[in-house]
Amino acid sequence: MTKYSSRYASSPEAVKKYDTQQLREEFLIDDLMQEDEVVLVYSHYDRYIAGSAVPVKGDLVLETIDPLKAPYFLERRELGIINVGGSGSVVVEGTTYELGFKDALYIGAGNKEVVFKSDDKNNPAKFYLNSAPAHTSYPTKKVSLAEANKLQLGTMETANHRTVNQMIIGSVVTTCQLQMGMTELKPGSVWNTMPAHVHDRRMEVYFYLDIPQDQAVCHFMGQPQETRHIWINNHQAVISPPWSIHSGSGTSNYTFIWGMAGENLDYGDMDVCKITDLR
Fold it and tell me: pTM of the entire structure?
C-alpha cells in the first residue's frame, strides 16, 4: 500500500508569521516508518520526495503516484535508500541488493520494478527513501556504511564532534542531482550543522534517528536573522527550504540522514552564517 501527500513551497515572509502548528504542518514529516506501507511526501521544493517503506507481512512495491504523471515511479526520477532497521533487500529489475543497518542504495532513472523485502518480520527493514528528478540514467549501486567517504568534523569542546558519512555523493556514486549521507554525533556532542548555513541553490531534508527513548532534537530553521524551531522525535524528518538554515541540538547525541537536490552537486557550496549573527 502507498500513501502520499504534497507540500507546497512557502516564502520566508510567510513563514515569519507561522505559529508552531503551521510550522509543523508545512515542514515536519511525522508519519514515516509505518508497517506494510510505502509513505511518500512530495515537496514542491525542487520536486523532492522523502518517504519510507517497511515490509513486514510481505513485500512492498514502489508504485507511481499521481503527482508524477508517469507510468512508473522512476521513469524520470532517481532514488536513494538507506536502511535504518533490520536487514533486508531491495530488488531492482530482478537484481537483489542486500542492505544491512545503515547501508545505502542508489537506483538510477528508468528502472520500472523496485521491491522492498525484510529478512525477519520480527525485526523488519526500515527503508528511508529520497528521490529527485533525473535527466538521465546512471547505474544502480550499493554503498555500505563502511564504504562511505568519512569526514571527522567538530570538537567535543563545541559539542559538535561528529562523523559525516558521504554515501550517495559524487566521489562515491554518480547521480544526476540527488545527494545523501548520514551524520553520526559522538557521545557528549549534540549540535549538528553548526555554524549553520544556507545554500540557495539546493533544498535539503533531514531525517533523525538513533534518538534515545524520552529524548528529542530541537531543529532550527528559517532565515539566519529570523529563526524558528521544530521539536523532532525519532524517525521524523523535516523539509528545509533553500533560504533556510538547517541545524539542530539534541538532549543527547543522535544520528541524522541528510538528502538534497538542486542546482549543483558541490557538497561544499554553502553560505555559512556566523554563530554570533544568528537571531
Answer: 0.97
